[in-house]
Amino acid sequence: MNKRYMYASIIKRIIDFILSLVGIAVLAPLFLALIILGVIFMGGNPFFTQTRPGKDEKVFNLIKFRTMDNRKDSDGNLLPDEVRLNKYGRFLRASSLDELPELLNILVGDMALIGPRPLLVRYLDRYNEEQHHRHDVRPGLTGYAQAHGRNAVSWEDKFAMDVWYSRNISLALDCQIIIDTVKTVLNREGISSETSATMEEFMGTPNGVQATWKPPR
Asked: What pTM does this model have?
């Protein structure tokens, strides 16, 4: 058993469990404060839950703090994301505090601290063969793509980063991603794409379209 395999299959999970447990305990006062603020600014339930595909495309329930309210038009349809993403929600998203409840997902083993972000279940049928390999590992609270462009890079580049990470997991790489993520959050980089308040829906990679991102040497 080589070192990379041992880290990816055993040690990484142990570290994730310990750090998520410690994080939940230490951040309990912050959790409570955000729950109260969420009730106030979101007009009710401060949590957002949604099914997402995890390792080997097994579906689990992701939990986050809600960043969009439930305002609807006269016909009862939810208003566009950019309208429902209020100032409090923008603060949560810019600071990445909306992701904190995912420590619970990490604790139970649905997620890891570092890995490709868990996306929508309906995207599974839209991935090409290569893109499916992003699910060879547990999804993460943050990942290589989040630390290197976040929502400001194309889906193709994002998935290329995810697949590269899944094939090159190491303790050194995870530590570097944590450092780069902190820099990205502090600099408020890549919060939105160029044309959306969040990120456009992935509709599949058109024939002939390829990622422009190149792996680091």
From this structure: 0.87
